[in-house]
Structures are given as C-alpha cells and as structure tokens.
Amino acid sequence: MKITQFDKNEHDRKSFDCGNTELNNYLKCISGQHEKKDISRTYVLTSELNPSHIKGYYSIAVAQVSLCELPTEIAKKYPSEITCSLIGRMAVNHTCQRQGLGSILLIDAIKRIIQASSAIPIPMIIVQAKNEDARRFYSEFGFVSFPDNYLKLMMTLAHAKAMLKEAEH
Ligand SMILES: CC(C)(COP(=O)(O)OP(=O)(O)OC[C@H]1O[C@@H](n2cnc3c(N)ncnc32)[C@H](O)[C@@H]1OP(=O)(O)O)[C@@H](O)C(=O)NCCC(=O)NCCS
C-alpha cells in the first residue's frame, strides 16, 4: 500500500466510488484544476498490486479561521485571525470502507501537515465532515467540533503531534 500525490495520468479516477457524489466528483473533475492553481493538493492510496486503482484519497488546502468561531479558551491564545491547514476532503472506495484505510489516510495527512509546519507555521488542522458518520470518524482521533458548526472540527498542531506520538507507542 502507498500514498502518493494524485496524478491523473497514472491513477484511474473514473472508477472511484465512495458513495458520495460530491466527493467522487471532486476527484474526477476538480482536483486536477485545484492542483494546477495551487489551491489544494490531493493524495491517493493505492495498492502495490494495482497501482492505478484508487482505494482512497484526501485533499489538503488552507483555510482562514476567525477567532470568534473558536471556543473562547482556545481563541484567547491567538492574536487575530489564523491560517490553518484544511483536510477538505477524504474518502475511501465503498468496497474498502471500515477496513482501517480512512485512519491510514488521516494519519498520513496529519503527518504531512506536521512536516510542512516546520517551514510554514500552521497553528491548527481543520476538517470538514460531510455527515454525522464522518464527524464520528474524525472525533475518534481527537478532533473537536466548532461551537456553532458541529460538522467542522479542529485540532491544534500541538495536539496532533502529541496524538501521533501516543499512537506510535
Ligand atoms: C468516512 C470514511 C473516510 C472513513 O474511512 P474508513 O476507511 O471507512 O474508516 P476506518 O475503517 O479507518 O474507521 C476508523 C474508525 O472511524 C469510525 N468510523 C468510520 N466510519 C464510520 C461510520 N460510517 N460511522 C461511524 N463511525 C465510523 C469508527 O470508529 C472506525 O473504527 P471501527 O471500524 O473499528 O469501529 C469513509 O467511510 C468514507 O469515505 N465515507 C464516505 C465518504 C465520506 O463521508 N467521507 C467523509 C468526508 S468528510
């Protein structure tokens, strides 16, 4: 199994189906444009046996978070609006769901963001859940919902680093 940057010449995006039309269409129609315009980066999980077949993917972009959106005890630690990393989309092919691949993708995304944060400071990771199932998936890892937007969740980078350290032990 490997996770690499999406390449439309190498990866078969047409056969990807996670059961959510919007997430399927993002991979098929939008991710390439976003890549070209430096709006987001998409990473795909494939198997060694069939490297063109996409088992799952995620995309990372940036997002502005205003302090009034955050819980007061977190907001008071920051001087003004903050720029965060956004895991905007994540999906696993419907034939492979509930086999741990979503967890592998999420950990990989967090590791990638932590690595990038040594060059560009990133105070927080934001995820946008599409539904209650996805919210539960993210909250299992310690992501916490925004007070006024249950499906938008956050994790400080310090928390993400601690979570990974704990997972590795
Ligand atoms: C949400 C999604 C990415 C999770 O990927 P996955 O490979 O199925 O998840 P995992 O097998 O790694 O699950 C890890 C844990 O997350 C939780 N979880 C995952 N899917 C869940 C669901 N549908 N309902 C409730 N909890 C869920 C469970 O605690 C699960 O552990 P368990 O299987 O031991 O109970 C995947 O199911 C998916 O692509 N769904 C459709 C598209 C979608 O909604 N994407 C989210 C976009 S925001």
UniProtKB/TrEMBL annotation:
Top-level taxonomic group: Bacteria
A Pfam family this chain is assigned to: Acetyltransf_1
Keyword field: Acyltransferase, Plasmid, Repressor, Toxin-antitoxin system, Transferase
Residues covered by the N-acetyltransferase domain: 87-168
Reaction it catalyzes: glycyl-tRNA(Gly) + acetyl-CoA = N-acetylglycyl-tRNA(Gly) + CoA + H(+)
Keyword flag Thylakoid: no
Gene3D superfamilies recorded: 3.40.630.30
This protein's record includes keyword Repressor: yes
Gene Ontology molecular function terms on file: acyltransferase activity, transferring groups other than amino-acyl groups
PANTHER family: ACETYLTRANSFERASE (PTHR36449:SF1), ACETYLTRANSFERASE-RELATED (PTHR36449)
Family named by the database record: Belongs to the acetyltransferase family. GNAT subfamily.
Name of the protein: N-acetyltransferase domain-containing protein
Annotated source species: Shewanella baltica (strain OS195)
Organism lineage: Bacteria, Pseudomonadati, Pseudomonadota, Gammaproteobacteria, Alteromonadales
